[in-house]
Amino acid sequence: MGIDPGTNVMGYGLLRVEGKRVEMIAMGVIDLRRCHDVYTKLGRIYERVAGLIDAFKPDELAIEAPFFGKNVQSMLKLGRAQGVAIAAAISRGLPIHEYAPLKIKQAITANGQADKAQVAGVLKRILHIGDDNAVPFLDATDALAAAYCHYLESSRPTLVSDGPRSWKAFVKQRSGAGAQPLTTPQIKLAKALCKKPS
Q1: pLDDT score, position 159
Q2: Are residues 104 and 18 in the same domain?
Q3: Are residues 177 and 127 in the same domain?
Q4: Are 61 and 94 in contact (CB under 8 A)?
Q5: For this structure, is 4 an active site residue?
Q6: Residues 23, 47, 59, 64: which is the catalytic one?
Q7: Residue 182, domain extent
Q8: Do residues 166 and 146 both lie within one domain?
């Protein structure tokens, strides 16, 4: 589940991932424009996000981090909205992953400076979203972008941090006491790779 935090319009998007197949389940917005009291607004964000989690049962939450702009008041309001959405996810036991807007745009469009319309256009092509599923607010596709960015990040192969960092280290590690001995082809390959070019 992806969330694009907002104090007037908050986007959400949900993806189903089965192996390498990714499809959109739902996307939409939580419209808070008619709510003028800030604390009532935060309460509604909590209720709606918790309700979406209960309805769709996502495994994880990907949320866009607040953008560091010049307007401190806007940052504070956005941070509160994000915090309440995170609190709703924590209350339901969801792991939370936070991504900077630049990271999300880079992951979706390969351009960290892409605008909302460009992000939406790429997602429509990748996820085969028809115009009949279009939402009038781009906050929904931004939320879907956060979810898709997390899918891309979590599907990358991870490097073993304590593993050998070179072929020489690999051979040394495998020739230690208690280690499974190298086969003849492995020894030949390791020697060839360790050899300095002439």
Answers
A1: 47
A2: yes
A3: no
A4: yes
A5: yes
A6: 64
A7: 161-198
A8: no
Domain total in the chain? 2
Is 64 among the residues known to form the active site? yes
* Catalytic residue from among 37, 60, 139, 162: 139
Per the annotation, the verdict on 115 as an active-site residue is no
Task: Spell 113-149 as b/e; 16+ CB within 10 A means b.
Answer: ebebeebbebbbeebebeeeeebebbbbbbbbbbbbb
pTM of the model: 0.77
- 167 and 141 assigned to the same domain: no
How does pLDDT run across 91-131, given as a tens digit for each residue? 999 999 999 999 999 999 999 899 999 999 999 999 999 88
Q: Specify whether 86 is located in the same domain as 109.
A: yes
Most confident of 52-56, 63-67, 173-177: 52-56
